[in-house]
Each structure stands twice: as C-alpha cells, then as structure tokens.
Amino acid sequence: MARFNYILLDFDGTVADSKAVVLSVYNELAARRGYTKIEAHNIETLRSLSIKSRCRELNVPLYKIPFIAAHVIRQYGKSLHRLTFNPDIKSLLESLERQSVAYAILSTNAAQNISGFFQLQNLPCPEIYTSSKVFGKHRLMKKFLRQKKLQPKQVLYVGDELRDIVACRKCGIPVAWAAWGYDAPEALTANPPDYVLNNPQDLLHII
After folding, report:
1. How far apart are CA 108 and CA 115, in angstroms?
2. Which of 163, 138, 155, 139 minimizes the C-alpha distance to 51?
C-alpha cells in the first residue's frame, strides 16, 4: 500500500464542479471572438482530445489559451455561488482531516476564487498553491516540494486533466486521475496515470 506525506488536489473538475461556470464564461467569449462554442453535441468529443486538438476543433489559436484562461478566472469569481463540491468530495476531505492526512489545493485558478468557494461552503480552507500559468503546474509542484522539503515520491497529486499528468511526470510526482472531472479516459491513452479514481473514496484505499 502506498504511503504519502502529502496529498495535492487539483481544484476545478476534481474538488469543485465548475463545468457549468467555465463553459458559460467561455461560450460568452466565443460568441464575441468567433470561436466555436462548447455545447451538448461536441462536448464529449472535446473531452477526449488534447488541448492542441481541442483548439483546432474550436477554432481557437493555441497561443490564445493563456489569455482565455485568465479571462475565465477573472469572470469565475462572480459565479462562486454556482459552484458545488463534486459528489463525495466533502466527505473525502473530512476523512482526510480525521485521519490527519496532510493535503493542499494546487491549481491554476486564483487563490481568492478557491478560498472564496470554501468560505461559501462553510469549510476551513486548506493550504492553497496557485499559478497563473496554464502549462506551469510542474514549476508550482517543484516549488511546493522545495518549501515542504519533500521528495516527489512522498507526494500524490490528484487531478482530472492530461496536463496534470504531464506536469507530474516532469517533476516525478505520482498522479491519480479523477474520472469524474474534465478529461475523458481517451485523452490519457499516451500518458496513463499511476492510479485511477472512479470515485473520491478510492483515494482512501490508495493512501
């Protein structure tokens, strides 16, 4: 059985169900910029693609991704009241607390959005580590390891996207993929995670 000193949790898609908010903000921007909207008829196909392939499908220049992400995060804060925990996540966090398992949120969302969400949910906010760089999670992970004086194998990252797996591979941190999140299994074919979580309670069996 694996043992970890720290559990790092992605926020969007893993902890919080933010799909409706993110899609609403993106589609509003898409209507103004002439991008293809994400709707019921294409969302499942998009979930199975890499970010580069999604950009092609949505007619979005790849270099625009950081700007789009920044726009989404700015607008996101106005809709925190629409967010909920994904099913069984709240009970998972309570279980980690009871078992004295150290955990933190590591995300490319804004810290104020994450802390605001926990405040609205009337739960103590865990440690938060954030970066504004969509593709910079591996640098944030390395910074976390330095600050906590931990080796990569002492940490488990839980995320729901291919980019989470890629970031973990760059710094040697084991990764568990949350099947309830944004990316579909087909997106991970060339980069499988170390663990697959079909539901949040699976994490307790791993740790």
Report:
1. 13
2. 163
Helix axis angle for 137-148 and 162-171, nearest 10°, is 50
Return the amino acid letter for 67.
Answer: F
Name the domain boundary from 41, 61, 80.
80
For residue 47, what are its two tokens?
A: 């979930």
- Parts of the chain with a pLDDT under 50: 1
CB 175 within 8 A of CB 26: no
CB atoms within 10 A of CB 159: 28
Its domain, for residue 67, covers 19-80
- Which residue is associated with the tokens 């607008």? 75
Model pLDDT, residue 132: 81
Helix (H, G, I), strand (E, B) or coil at 155: strand
